[in-house]
Structures are given as structure tokens and as C-alpha cells.
User: What shape does this take?
Amino acid sequence: MKILKELDDAKLAIVDLEVRLGDEVRSAPTLCAKYKGKIIPLNTAHDGRPILMKEENSIEN
Assistant: This one.
């Protein structure tokens, strides 16, 4: 692996994220990045699997 650059304007946050799984609604503390005014989850709320930090994965506030 190789670090290409450090993102100075990115910040880590833990949010209480709510997700809908079929008819069930769950929430869990989720590690996220705040980047360019967007919240981007870094792992799934229901089972903790990692997610790539892409702006397409951002959630509206």
C-alpha cells in the first residue's frame, strides 16, 4: 500500500445511524467521515463491514 495524500479537510465522527432492513428499522453507532460537508459511513450499521469512503456513499443530513 502507498499513501497518496492526507485529506486535511476530512474529520472522523461517530453517528447514530438508522437503517431499514426489510420491515425492520435498526440503529447503531457508526464510524463516519465528514468530508466536503457530507457524512460518509465507513462501515455498515447492521453488521460492521467496512465501506469505501466514496462521496456516492454519503448520507444527507
Strands lie at 11-21, 24-35, 38-41. The mean pLDDT is 86. The longest strand covers residues 24-35. The two ends are 33 Å apart (CA to CA).
